[in-house]
C-alpha cells in the first residue's frame, strides 16, 4: 500500500472524522459594542436640540479664543453663520418707520444677507482656486463663525447709539468696530491659514481682510436707532 492510500485508510467509509475550530460569521448591519453608532432617529427632540446648541456654542468659544486650529473644521455646520447673519441683517437694516419711500441710508435686510453669503462664497472660491485643501462648506463655516466678534461689536455699538452722539462716541464706535475686525480676521486666518499652500497665504488672507473690513465699516457707519 502506498503512502497515498494509507491516508484514506485512517477513516472508514462514511466517517469523516471530527473537525475542530471556530467559524465567525460577521453580522452585517448589526454593529455592537463600541462600534455601534448612535441612531439620532431614536433621540428625543430636546436632546437633539441641546446637543446641536452645545456644538454651536463650542464653535463660538473657539472663535473667541482661537487656539485649536481644527475645531471648526472637524464637523462643519451653517447654523451659527445663519444666526449671526440674521442678527446683523436685522440690526443693520434701514429704518422702516418712515411713511414715505425715502431711504434713510441704512442697508436693507436682504442686502446684508446677500453681502455676507455671497462674500463668503467669493472668498472661499478664491481659496479653492489658490489650491486650498479644505472643502467649500468648511471654509464658509469658518468665515461665518468668525463673524462673531463683528456681531458683538455691532451689538455694543447699537447700545451706544441710544445715547446722545458726539465725536467721542463716534471714535469709540470706530475703535470697537476695528477691534471686531482685527479679531475676526485673526481667527479666520488662524483656522484657514494652514489650508493654503506656502507662498500663497497672502493672496488668501487679503480677500478675508477685505470681506470683514466691509462688514465692519457697515457697523461703524450704522447710525439709526
Automatic annotation (TrEMBL):
Its main location: Golgi. The chain crosses the membrane at residues 112-130, 142-162, 168-191, 203-220. Residues 66-218 form the Yip1 domain. It holds the Pfam family Yip1. GO terms for cellular component: Golgi membrane; trans-Golgi network. Keywords: Membrane, Transmembrane, Transmembrane helix. It is found in: Golgi apparatus membrane; Membrane. One of its GO terms (biological process) is endoplasmic reticulum to Golgi vesicle-mediated transport. InterPro entries: Yip1/4-like (IPR045231), Yip1_dom (IPR006977). It is a multi-pass membrane protein. Belongs to the YIP1 family. PANTHER family: GOLGI MEMBRANE PROTEIN YIP1 (PTHR21236), PROTEIN YIPF6 (PTHR21236:SF1). This is Protein YIPF. It comes from Parnassius apollo (Apollo butterfly). The lineage of its organism: Eukaryota, Metazoa, Ecdysozoa, Arthropoda, Hexapoda.
